[in-house]
UniProtKB/TrEMBL annotation:
GO terms for molecular function: D-cysteine desulfhydrase activity. SUPFAM superfamilies: Tryptophan synthase beta subunit-like PLP-dependent enzymes (SSF53686). The keyword Signal does not apply. Belongs to the ACC deaminase/D-cysteine desulfhydrase family. Its cofactor is pyridoxal 5'-phosphate. The active site is at residue 66. Keywords: Pyridoxal phosphate. It comes from Hymenobacter arizonensis (Siccationidurans arizonensis). This is Pyridoxal-phosphate dependent enzyme.
Length: 309
C-alpha cells in the first residue's frame, strides 16, 4: 500500500499548461492491492454497519462485469463475510458463455452467484423482492447495485480531507455512474471548492436529482458547487469508440497510467476537453480522481481483444 503523497500524480499535459491549469491525478486505483478505488470507500461504513447488525453475509446485485460485484466478493474474502451476488443475465452453460474473468474471480473470492433474467432484475430495488431474496437465501446485509446508499457517502467524503492534507485545489473531478461518489465528495467539500461529475452513461441529466437526494439524505442539504457534464459518455454506459480507446492508449504512453473505458477514460477525456474550453479559470488546480475499475479490462480483452494495447 502506497503513501498518500505517492498517490497524487502530476499530469503534465500541454493543453492544461496552455490554459494555465495544473492537473493532478489521485490514484485511488493504487490505494489498496486487493480492494482499491471508490468501491472500497463505498463499502467501508457499510461493512461496519453489517458487523454491528450481526450479519455474516453480504447480498448484492450487479451485471456480469460489475466493479461493485468484484469489490463485494473481495471484501468478503478480506473481512470474513459470506457473499451472494445476484447477477443480471443468463447463467453460464446450456449454450451460454463460460464465466467471464470478473465472475471467475468473484467465485474464487468465495461469492455464490445466482442469475436473474432481465425482467426479474428490474425489481432489484423493490422491498418485496428483496424480502423474497432474504427468505430464500437467509439473513444478509443488502448492498444495492453499484454500492450507492447513504452509508457509501462518508467513505468517499474522507478523500476530500486526504487531498486537502496534500495540496490546495480548486476543483475535484470524478466519473459518475450512480452518483454516490460525487455525492460523497460534495459532503466532504461542504460547499467549498468545486466538483465536476462526468457522466459515464447516456441521458445522465437525471443524475443531478440523484446526487442532490443523496446529499440531502446524508447531511440534510443539496449543494450548488458542482457541475454535471453529460457530453462524454461515448454512446452510453460501457460504450466506446476508436477515439476513446486511442485516448486511453495515448494517456498511458504519456503518463504511465492505465485508465478504463467505462469510467476513468471518459473522465480524463472530459476533463481535458473542459480545460480546452475554458471551464476552469487560469491558475486553477484540478484533481481528477482515478476511481479504479481496472479489473474490467480482463473481461474487455476477452470480449474484444487487446484493444488497449
Amino acid at each position: 500500500m502506497q503513501s498518500d503523497r505517492a498517490l497524487l500524480q502530476e499530469i503534465n499535459e500541454p493543453l492544461a499548461a496552455a490554459h494555465g491549469v495544473r492537473l493532478l491525478l489521485w490514484r485511488d486505483d493504487l490505494a489498496h492491492p486487493d480492494l482499491p478505488g471508490n468501491k472500497a470507500r463505498k463499502l467501508k461504513y457499510n461493512l461496519e454497519a453489517a458487523r454491528q447488525q450481526g450479519h455474516h453475509t453480504l447480498l448484492t446485485f450487479g451485471g456480469a462485469y460489475s466493479n461493485h460485484v468484484a469489490a463485494v466478493a473481495t471484501a468478503g474474502r478480506l473481512y470474513g463475510f459470506k457473499t451472494i451476488g445476484l447477477i443480471r443475465g443468463d447463467a453460464p452453460g446450456a449454450g451460454h458463455a463460460v464465466l467471464n474473468p470478473t465472475l471467475t474471480q468473484a467465485v474464487a473470492d468465495g461469492m455464490a452467484l445466482h442469475y436473474l433474467d432481465r425482467n426479474t432484475y428490474r425489481r432489484r430495488s423493490d422491498p418485496d423482492f428483496i424480502a423474497e431474496q432474504l427468505a430464500a437465501f437467509g439473513p444478509a446485509y443488502v448492498l444495492p447495485e453499484g454500492g450507492t446508499n447513504p452509508l457509501a457517502l462518508p467513505g468517499c467524503a474522507e478523500l476530500v480531507a486526504e487531498l486537502r492534507s496534500l495540496t490546495d485545489f480548486d476543483a475535484l473531478a470524478v466519473a459518475v455512474g450512480t452518483g454516490g461518489t460525487l455525492a460523497g465528495l460534495l459532503t466532504g467539500l461542504a460547499g467549498q471548492q468545486q466538483a465536476v461529475g462526468v457522466a459515464a452513461l447516456k441521458n445522465g441529466s437525471f443524475l443531478r436529482a440523484e446526487v442532490d437526494a443523496l446529499t440531502e439524505q446524508a447531511v440534510g442539504q443539496a449543494f450548488a458547487n458542482y457541475s454535471l457534464q453529460t457530453d462524454y459518455h461515448f454512446g452510453g454506459y460501457a460504450k466506446y469508440s476508436a477515439e476513446l480507446l486511442g485516448f486511453i492508449r495515448q494517456f498511458r504512453e504519456r503518463h504511465a497510467v492505465l485508465l478504463d473505458p467505462v469510467y476513468t477514460g471518459k473522465l480524463l477525456y472530459g476533463v481535458l476537453d473542459l480545460i480546452g474550453k475554458g471551464h476552469f479559470r487560469r491558475g486553477s488546480t484540478v484533481v481528477a480522481i482515478h476511481t479504479g475499475g481496472l479489473q474490467a479490462w480482463a473481461g474487455w480483452h476477452q470480449r474484444f481483444g487487446s484493444i488497449a494495447d
